[in-house]
Amino acid sequence: MFRAMLCKDYSGPQGLALGELPREPLGDDDVRVAVHVAGVGFADILVTQGQYQLKPPTPFAPGGECAGEVLDVGPAVKYVAPGDRVMCGRAVGAFAEEIVVQEKHVTRLPDGVAYTQAAALRSAYGTGYYALQHRGHLQPGEVLLVHAAAGAVGLAAVDLGRMMGARVIGTVGSDEKAAAVRAAGVEHVINYRRTPRLRDEVKALTADRGADVIYDPVGGDLFDESLRCIAWGGRLLVIGFASGRIPSAPANLALVKNMSIVGVYFGSWVDHEPLRLRAHYEQILQWCAAGRITPHISSVRPLEQAGQALLDLAARQVVGKVVLQVR
Ligand SMILES: NC(=O)c1ccc[n+]([C@@H]2O[C@H](COP(=O)([O-])OP(=O)(O)OC[C@H]3O[C@@H](n4cnc5c(N)ncnc54)[C@H](OP(=O)(O)O)[C@@H]3O)[C@@H](O)[C@H]2O)c1
């Protein structure tokens, strides 16, 4: 048995409680990992409320990403061995001392990347680089507009966009978050709660051209504004719907602006191109080890505080990433 934060009744983050889970058997291509640090993510809130696409039988430990040490491997596993430092992910199971994942979901950590950093960057930077590079084809010198720029995927996109040579504009929902995004090196940050027409601000900052690439984890009204301030030939990256409203786009705007609305579902990439995904993670980890990117970790909390960490996330109180120290 091992310690875990358990969801017993889908009552949301406040219902999580410390308990124990039995060890799972290992399949041929499975890896058992001793979890040291777990990342706290937006999807974990939905999982604990039973609103996620996957609804595991209770009790289960939520948590989609973590870093730790390999304990044991199935007979077909070649990429890692017991004792290796790794990061890994699964839909649930990371808010626990042990997790079993398939080999394709595991990436070895280079020296110089701490467990806290790996757990904080896996989903946020994985999504950000996949979106900006593979889906958005962001070029040096282009204008990148990042919505909810102080959130986990937002700050990662800011960091990556700057490294890729883009001129970054951030949008946020509070002055405190604006300060955090400025501290990350962004000169122009717009507080959308104080700005009735975001499109005007963006156009003023871009000599009326608009943004070449827009990174949108929020949807709703921000997506609607994005359609009006995207440049000719722009790419509008659909990352998520944190606002709760899934927007739609008039096709004539796509035509007139010669623009693309591009869906980004990073979590599904592993099922299509697992080897490219591994190389992708290894690249991000190398940049982290070299200090070229720096995941923003706002707090490291004990496992017992998983529920409160998720409540803070839902209340928009978190800048960057919260991680849980599991052991
Ligand atoms: N497509 C993919 O592959 C992929 C991968 C990872 C995450 N996502 C999605 O991306 C979105 C953001 O994830 P995240 O981890 O960055 O979350 P996060 O750290 O909580 O950031 C989300 C931000 O959205 C803003 N927001 C606007 N309206 C909101 C509302 N009604 N409720 C909560 N937040 C609201 C908040 O910023 P302000 O307070 O500044 O407004 C908040 O900080 C989620 O929908 C997630 O599911 C998608």
How would you describe this protein?
This protein folds into 2 domains: 2-121 and 269-325, Alpha-Beta Complex (Quinone Oxidoreductase, Chain A, domain 1); 139-264, NAD(P)-binding Rossmann-like Domain (Rossmann fold). Strands 3, 4, 5, 6, 7, 14 and 15 form a 7-stranded mixed sheet that branches. It has a 6-stranded parallel sheet with strand order 10-9-8-11-12-13, sandwiched between helices. α10 (306-314) links the parallel β14 (297-302) and β15 (321-325). It starts with a strand and ends with a strand. α2 (115-135) crosses α9. The model has no long low-confidence stretch (mean pLDDT 97). The chain has helices at 42-48, 115-135, 152-163, 175-183, 198-205, 220-228, 251-256, 269-272, 274-289, 306-314, and strands at 2-6, 17-21, 30-39, 65-73, 85-89, 98-102, 106-108, 143-146, 167-172, 188-191, 211-216, 230-238, 260-263, 297-302, 321-325. The protein is 31% helix and 26% strand. It has 327 residues and is of the alpha/beta class. It is built from 10 helices and 15 strands. Residues 41-43, 123, 127, 148, 150-154, 172-174, 177, 217-218, 239-244, 264-267, 313, 316, 318 line the site of NADP nicotinamide-adenine-dinucleotide phosphate.
Fold topology:
Layout: E1 2-6, E2 17-21, E3 30-39, H1 42-48, E4 65-73, E5 85-89, E6 98-102, E7 106-108, H2 115-135, E8 143-146, H3 152-163, E9 167-172, H4 175-183, E10 188-191, H5 198-205, E11 211-216, H6 220-228, E12 230-238, H7 251-256, E13 260-263, H8 269-272, H9 274-289, E14 297-302, H10 306-314, E15 321-325
Parallel strand pairs: 8-9, 8-11, 9-10, 11-12, 12-13, 14-15
Antiparallel strand pairs: 1-2, 3-4, 3-6, 3-15, 4-5, 5-7
NADP nicotinamide-adenine-dinucleotide phosphate binds near residues 218, 244 and 316.
